[in-house]
Write a structure and sequence with these properties.
Blueprint (H helix, E strand, L loop, with lengths): L1 H20 L4 E10 L3 H9 L1 H4 L4 H5 L4 E5 L8 E6 L3 E11 L3 E10 L3 E12 L2 E11 L2 H7 L4 H22 L1
Antiparallel strand pairs: 1-7, 2-3, 3-4, 4-5, 5-6, 6-7
């Protein structure tokens, strides 16, 4: 009986590992929202990390987050490093911008798990408004593939992107 249970357990673990190995090697999470403001106003709230953090949903999760700004004040080379008991430790850096159109950031997470991803913000004029898309993509190492068998990255982070875009909308439309 014990031998049978052991064989079943080993087979289940083997199937789990095999299934995880078939998962994609990269991920992409994306959310969009129409904001009643010109692209230039919204761009200024993304391209300047001091202003970005006024609507950043992850900082709102832990107001006690310790942060350090470095590099240029805004645009390419602007950096923000954070440390928090609730949202972990990491750094973001603006690596590319196109005025009033897009901002690309590198995201390096140290804790609660190590990850190196990219975030992209695209702004598309839409009549008297702007369609803003926030996307994040990156590689999925095997341990993350195993974790994603049980927890979806989209479910884990998608709601935060929605909250962030809603915060950005409130701020941009009030300006």
């Amino acid at each position: 009986m014990l031998k049978t249970l052991l064989i079943i357990a080993v087979a289940a673990v083997g199937l789990l590992l095999a299934y995880a190995a078939t998962r994609p090697d990269s991920f992409r999470i994306e959310r969009s929202l129409r904001i009643e403001a010109p692209p230039e106003r919204i761009y200024a709230l993304i391209d300047d990390l001091h202003r970005f953090n006024l609507w950043n949903p992850f900082l709102r999760k832990d107001p006690a987050t310790q942060g350090i700004y470095s590099g240029t004040p805004s645009g390419k080379g602007a950096r923000y490093a954070w440390q928090s008991d609730k949202v972990g430790v990491g750094q973001m850096e603006i690596v590319d911008t196109t005025a009033a159109s897009s901002v690309t950031m590198s995201l390096d997470f140290i804790t609660p798990f190590e990850a190196h991803n990219m975030a992209e913000f695209t702004l598309k004029p839409d009549a008297n408004a702007t369609q803003v898309t926030w996307a994040m993509h990156g590689p999925v190492p095997f341990l993350s593939k195993l974790m994603q068998v049980f927890v979806s990255m989209d479910r884990m982070v998608g709601k935060d992107f929605e909250d962030g875009l809603s915060n950005l909308k409130t701020l941009a439309e009030a300006s």
